[in-house]
Design brief:
- This protein is α/β, with parallel strands linked by helices.
- It has two domains: 180 residues, Rossmann fold (3-Layer(aba) Sandwich); 193 residues, Dehydroquinate synthase-like, alpha domain (Up-down Bundle), CATH 1.20.1090.
- Helices cover 48% and strands 11% of the residues.
- The strands form two sheets. It has a six-stranded parallel sheet with strand order 1-9-6-4-2-3, with helices on both faces. Strands 5-8-7 form a three-stranded mixed sheet, sandwiched between helices.
- α9 packs antiparallel against α10.
- The chain is globular, with a radius of gyration of 20 Å.
- The protein starts with 14 loop residues before the first strand and ends with a helix.
- It binds fe (ii) ion.
Length: 392
C-alpha cells in the first residue's frame, strides 16, 4: 500500500483552456488575466507557419494591442536572448507577454518576463523559490507581468509549469529557475497550433512528456496529486503519441490529446533522466526530448534494481503498457527502447554527436543537477559514468 507522504505541496494555478479554434479567442481570454499591451515571443520557424499572425489577430479581436513581436528565440535559448527579449518588451511599452512556441520560446518568455518586471540579468533569476517576495523575502512572491502561452509542441509542459531552463553559454550550464510567479496565467491548448509540427520534433517532445510522467511518478518527491496526473498522462501518451507522430496533420484528435498529456505530465519533481539530459544539451547541443528518449531506458533499468519499493512504482507504469514481466526494469526499458526506435528517434548518444571523451563533463553536470537529488535511487559519479557509457 502507498504510505502517507511525509510532506509535499501541489499548486496548479494556470488557467488552461483546451479545444478547437481557440487561437482567435486569445485576446478575449488574455484580457481576463489583466493584459492590455501584449508582447509576443516566438521563433522564426513558428512565425513562418502563419500561426503568430493568427494569434496577433486573436489578440486584436479581443480589443488588446500587440505591442511588439520578438521572433529571435533559438532552439536552445540563452541568457543573452532572454535579456534582449526583455529589453525589447520594455522598449515596446508592453504590459504582458504571449509566448507562441515550444519549450525554448516559453522558457524565454518566462525568464524575460521576470527580468522585465524585476530588472537585473537573466542569471540573477537562477534558483528554486528565490524570486523577490513581500515582507523582506518571507511573504507572498511578487507577481510578474501576465503571461499567456500557446504551446506549439506537445512535450515540455512549460505552459503550466513554474520552471524554466535557459542556457548560460559562458558557464556551459543550463540555468534552472523555478518559483510560483513563473506559472503562466493562461495556457491555450489548440491542436491547430501543432498542425505543422515535424514528425521528428513531435516524437522527441512526446518522449519529453513521457519522461516527465514517469520521473514524476517514481521520484523521491512523488505525490498522490502527481501520481494521478502522471498515470493519466501515460495512458494518453500510450494511445496518442505514435498516432500523432505518424499521422501528424491528419490526426487532430491525437495532436490535441498529446497537448493535454504533456500538460498533465509536467512536474518539477523529476530525476536522473533529466539530470543526464541537461548537460547533454549544455555541452553537446543534444535536443532535450531526444536526450531524454536516449537516457530513459537506462535510468529505468538502473533505478528499478534499487529496491522492491522503487521497482513497484515502475511496475505501475509497466502495467499501463501491458508489460507484465516480473523483472520490470529490463522489461520496461526494452519496451521504451522499442517505442523510441518506432518513433524514428536515435537510441544512442554517439548518434547525436556525443564523444566518449565527453563523459567526464557529462557526469559532473549530472551530479550537479538539482534533479539528481530527487531520483528514487541515490546516484554516485560511478553510476552516471556507467549509465552514460551504456547510452553511448
Ligand atoms: Fe523535460
Amino acid at each position: 500500500m502507498t504510505p502517507f507522504k511525509d510532506f509535499y505541496q501541489h499548486t496548479e494555478p494556470t488557467r488552461v483552456i483546451s479545444g478547437r479554434d481557440l487561437i482567435g479567442s486569445t485576446g478575449f481570454e488574455f484580457q481576463k488575466e489583466g493584459a492590455h499591451r501584449v508582447f509576443v515571443v516566438t521563433d522564426e520557424v513558428i512565425r513562418a507557419t502563419g500561426l503568430v499572425e493568427r494569434a496577433e489577430a486573436g489578440v486584436a479581436d479581443g480589443g488588446l494591442e500587440v505591442a511588439g513581436v520578438f521572433d529571435q528565440v533559438p532552439q536552445d535559448s540563452s541568457t543573452e536572448v532572454v535579456e534582449r527579449c526583455a529589453a525589447a518588451a520594455k522598449e515596446a511599452g508592453a504590459d504582458s507577454f504571449l509566448a507562441v512556441g515550444g519549450g525554448s520560446v516559453m522558457d524565454t518568455a518566462k525568464v524575460a518576463d521576470a527580468v522585465f518586471t524585476h530588472g537585473g540579468g537573466a542569471a540573477e533569476q537562477e534558483g528554486f523559490f528565490l524570486m523577490p517576495r513581500e515582507d523582506d523575502g518571507m511573504g507572498r512572491p511578487l507577481d510578474i507581468a501576465p503571461l499567456a502561452c500557446i504551446p506549439t509542441t506537445a512535450g515540455t509542459g512549460s505552459e503550466v509549469s513554474m520552471a524554466a531552463v535557459i542556457k548560460d553559454p559562458e558557464r556551459k550550464v543550463k540555468l534552472e529557475i523555478a518559483d510560483f510567479p513563473l506559472f503562466p496565467r493562461l495556457a491555450i491548448l489548440d491542436p491547430d497550433s501543432t498542425r505543422t509540427l515535424p514528425a521528428a520534433i513531435a516524437a522527441a517532445t512526446g518522449m519529453d512528456a513521457m519522461t516527465h510522467a514517469i520521473e514524476g511518478y517514481v521520484c523521491a518527491d512523488w505525490s498522490p496529486h502527481q501520481d494521478a496526473r502522471s498515470l493519466q498522462a501515460l495512458r494518453m501518451i500510450r494511445d496518442n503519441l505514435e498516432r500523432a507522430v505518424e499521422r501528424g496533420e491528419d490526426d487532430e484528435d491525437a495532436r490535441g490529446n498529446m497537448l493535454i498529456a504533456a500538460n498533465l505530465a509536467i512536474t518539477i519533481a523529476l530525476g536522473s533522466v533529466h539530470a543526464m539530459s541537461h548537460p547533454a544539451g549544455a555541452h553537446f547541443g543534444v535536443p532535450h526530448g531526444m536526450a531524454n528518449a536516449i537516457h530513459l531506458p537506462h535510468v529505468i533499468e538502473h533505478n528499478a534494481a534499487g529496491g522492491p519499493e522503487i521497482a513497484e512504482r515502475y511496475r505501475d507504469v509497466a502495467e499501463l503498457f501491458d508489460v507484465t514481466d516480473p523483472d520490470v526494469g529490463p522489461a520496461l526499458a526494452a519496451h521504451v527502447t522499442e517505442l523510441v526506435g518506432r518513433l524514428g528517434l536515435p537510441t544512442r548518444l554517439s548518434e547525436v554527436g556525443v564523444p566518449e571523451e565527453g563523459i567526464p563533463a557529462l557526469v559532473e553536470g549530472a551530479m550537479g543537477d538539482g534533479t539528481t537529488l530527487l531520483n528514487p535511487r541515490e546516484m554516485a559519479e560511478e553510476d552516471y559514468e556507467e549509465l552514460y557509457r551504456r547510452a553511448l
